[in-house]
Amino acid sequence: MCNFAPMILNKQTARKTAEVLLQVNAIKLSPSAPFTWASGWKSPIYCDNRIILSFPLIRNYIRETMAKHIEEQYGKPDVIAGVATGAIGIGMLVAEYLGVPFIYVRPEAKSHGRQNQIEGFIQKGQNVVVVEDLISTGKSSLNAVRALREANLNVKGMIAIFTYGFNIAEENFKKENVLLQTLSNYENLIMQAVETNYVSQSEVKTLTDWNANPSEWNAI
């Protein structure tokens, strides 16, 4: 039986990925001046992995690492699906590297035109691997998986660049029986940030407390 708890590929990949994300400010840590997420949460971390598309060497590293793992784990899939909008770019790059078709999944069907939620050519029974840029609670990512399954596609699993490692995400992926693997996670990010003096040891407690219970931390 598969273990559907989110997992990183390996420690070396996790640390290298954390390093490059911090390097280009795709992930910013600011314990003393928290960010405000779209949800209204206050957070000492902000992640926007789309910025890696502007750095050829880094986007190629992410593309190749994802693609090689997908092939090792699942064999070559029939199609790669990106979750709109953050994973469209990297998903296309992964599909190109593997030489397979690419589709992407909207949060919901369009209200006009062909009213598609899935954009691109698909056929029933195709094997698909979902590419995501970031996992927080997992709700939007799993919404895409449900849309693909409703279209009678066989979702082999999902691979993402980074996860915050929230317990709720683990619960959601287990509930939906979706195998999630990520290049890096919050734990390895913090270790990398400390080693490179991106944050001080005194700031680590703030970052750790937030990750353990972000909704309660938000209420402070």
Q: What's the layout of helices and strands?
A:
Elements: E1 7-8, H1 11-23, E2 27-29, E3 35-36, E4 42-43, E5 45-47, H2 56-74, E6 79-83, H3 88-98, E7 102-105, E8 118-119, E9 127-135, H4 139-150, E10 154-163, H5 167-175, E11 180-185, H6 186-195, H7 201-212, H8 214-219
Parallel strand pairs: 1-11, 6-7, 6-9, 9-10, 10-11
Antiparallel strand pairs: 2-5, 3-4, 7-8
Helix pairs in contact: 1-6, 2-3
* CATH topology category name: Rossmann fold
Helix proportion range: 40-55%
**Total number of beta strands:** 11
Head-to-tail CA distance between termini: 41 Å
CATH level-two architecture: 3-Layer(aba) Sandwich
What percent strand?
A: 15-25%
Determine the number of helices (DSSP H or I, runs of at least 4 residues).
Answer: 8
Q: Work out the oligomeric state of the chains in this entry.
A: single chain
Structural class: alpha/beta
CATH class: Alpha Beta
Low-confidence runs of at least 5 consecutive residues: none
Order of helices and strands: EHEEEEHEHEEEHEHEHHH
Kindly describe this structure.
The model has no long low-confidence stretch (mean pLDDT 91). This protein has eight helices and eleven strands. The radius of gyration is 17 Å and the shape is globular. It has a seven-stranded mixed sheet with strand order 1-11-10-9-6-7-8, sandwiched between helices. It has helices spanning 11-23, 56-74, 88-98, 139-150, 167-175, 186-195, 201-212, 214-219; strands spanning 7-8, 27-29, 35-36, 42-43, 45-47, 79-83, 102-105, 118-119, 127-135, 154-163, 180-185. With 220 residues, it is an alpha/beta fold.
